[in-house]
């Protein structure tokens, strides 16, 4: 991490501060859930700009902030790019099976409603 990147470090809750209601709130929005689904399917962190979302840039920023502040994602800067990674291991330790259950249910709903 460069000195400039360190100066732009974003605040994230420690694992002990992550609350179930915050995680559920973050995952309850369809746009945020689609972000989490994309992150879950990626082998590496993704830039905010790599998501094709049906909302404005400012609304996209809001959704990423909600996900970060609830502890669902970790955001880091690489140069001018903000990268996003799912905090899967920490969430699994705190709430065993929750993320898998939500993602499985989201996929089943998508199949049921024919949004494939």
From TrEMBL:
InterPro entries the record matches: ArsR-like_HTH (IPR011991), HTH_ArsR_DNA-bd_dom (IPR001845), HTH_MetalResp_TranReg (IPR051081), WH-like_DNA-bd_sf (IPR036388), WH_DNA-bd_sf (IPR036390)
Keywords (A to Z) from UniProt: DNA-binding, Transcription, Transcription regulation
Classification via SUPFAM superfamilies: Winged helix' DNA-binding domain (SSF46785)
GO molecular function, one term: DNA-binding transcription factor activity
Gene3D superfamilies given in the database record: Winged helix-like DNA-binding domain superfamily/Winged helix DNA-binding domain (1.10.10.10)
Domain HTH arsR-type, first and last residues per copy: 12-106
A Pfam family reported for this protein in Swiss-Prot or TrEMBL: HTH_20
Stated name of the protein: Transcriptional regulator
Source organism of the structure: Streptomyces subrutilus
